[in-house]
Specification:
Blueprint: E1 5-7, H1 9-22, H2 27-42, H3 56-64, E2 75-78, E3 84-88, H4 94-112, E4 114-122, H5 129-136, E5 141-146, E6 167-173, E7 176-182, H6 190-198, E8 201-208, E9 214-218, H7 221-225, E10 228-229, H8 234-254, E11 273-280, H9 288-303, H10 315-327, E12 329-331, H11 333-346
Parallel strand pairs: 3-4
Antiparallel strand pairs: 1-12, 2-3, 4-11, 5-6, 5-11, 6-7, 8-9, 8-10
Helix pairs in contact: 1-2, 2-4, 4-5
Length: 354
């Protein structure tokens, strides 16, 4: 990334907030959404950042198409004395609803030891780890899942039906944020789309076409988008990822998620997804100090069995975040082009490089 220029996180957040506000969103919900997108950029998850494929460009386009209800205020449904709730996002801003759900899950965990909030009739919420880490900062272990537009044939199937359905899961361990954020497919779809549009090769065991033929190398865009991303585990062991993927969807159905195939953005801008966010206390068996010590001891023991190149879940992202907070977020030329295009579309001045 030698052609990168750095953008200050605060300036990027202010720009994104103002751009979303220009569409008609309330200040607080616009800023929460902007902060979630910038949080992904800070961690190097650029696909879900401001200039990423599911970032501000999609948000602007879908809002103007009437697919996002910018005035929506989520409605929470709860039963008395239950450590769970369901939130109707009413088609509003996905990150704002999800962060509100994360706060509620934490409050329930404070009260009951565990908290679980389902969000339905919602939109893309960015990087799932952002909500997990917000709960870890409060001292909880946490998990978040999300359904998504369909891009995958079930293992052994012949038609696309399932999404990439990510899982993020984190446990606080001293100074380490042990958190994994992964699709239940081999990879997200956006890297393959970028590669085909640029004429670059895609790796093997990643995609197959509509006839089930595995793709690799330089692939025509039309052939790729008519096909299927492979489940986690690939052609041979994909039953594992396919099984996780299905369970993520079924778990979200419990809390109001769709019972039918979710259309992806290439089919309709009106797609709706659901999320489940969970938090639980770490001191239910041991006092908190002892629980934390046990976790740190375990991490240290795992580290003792690895070399200098071994990274724990979330460690790469934590390093990128520390660097970006200090020096600014690295943005490539194409990402700056996206910011300037969005500036023209929304009338909000783009941020200057650091």
């Amino acid at each position: 990334m030698n052609d990168c220029q750095r953008v200050p996180a605060d300036a990027l957040t202010d720009f994104t907030t103002a751009a979303i506000r220009s569409l008609g969103a309330q200040e607080d919900r616009a800023r929460t959404t902007a902060e979630a997108l910038v949080a992904a950029d800070l961690r190097g998850i650029s696909s879900h950042g401001v200039a990423g494929g599911t970032g501000l460009t999609e948000l602007v386009a879908r809002s103007r198409a009437g697919a996002i209800n910018l005035e929506a205020v989520p409605e929470v449904h709860r039963k008395p004395n239950w450590a769970a709730g369901a939130m109707d996002a009413k088609g509003g801003l996905g990150p704002a609803a999800a962060m509100e759900a994360a706060h509620l899950a934490g409050d329930l965990a404070d009260q009951y030891g565990v908290g679980r909030v389902h969000v339905y009739d919602s939109n893309h919420f960015g990087a799932a780890c952002v909500y997990v880490e917000s709960l870890m900062e409060r001292g909880f272990a946490a998990r978040a899942t999300c359904t998504s537009g369909s891009w995958m044939m079930p293992y052994g199937g012949s038609k696309v039906r399932l999404g990439t359905n990510p899982i993020a899961w984190g446990i606080p361990c001293g100074d380490d944020a042990i958190v994994i954020d992964m699709a239940t497919t081999q990879r997200a779809v956006s890297p393959a789309i970028r590669a085909t549009r640029a004429g670059d090769p895609i790796p093997p065991d990643y995609f197959k076409d509509k006839d089930g033929i595995l793709l690799e190398g330089v692939v025509p865009y039309e052939r790729l988008i008519g096909g299927s991303v492979l489940p986690l585990g690939g052609e041979q062991f994909g039953y594992k990822g396919s099984g996780l993927n299905i369970l993520v969807e079924l778990d979200n159905v419990i809390g109001g998620g769709s019972t039918e195939q979710i259309r992806n953005m290439r089919e309709t801008p009106m797609s709706r997804v659901s999320q489940t966010i969970e938090a639980w206390r770490i001191d239910f068996l041991f006092p908190e100090d002892e629980a934390r010590c046990r976790l740190i001891e375990t991490v240290n023991d795992i580290r003792s069995h690895g070399g200098p190149e071994m990274l724990l879940p979330g460690e790469r992202e934590a390093r990128k975040k520390a660097d970006a907070e200090k020096r600014g977020i690295p943005y490539e030329a194409s990402q700056w082009e996206t910011l300037h295009r969005l500036s023209i579309e929304t009338g909000v001045p783009a941020p200057d490089p650091a």
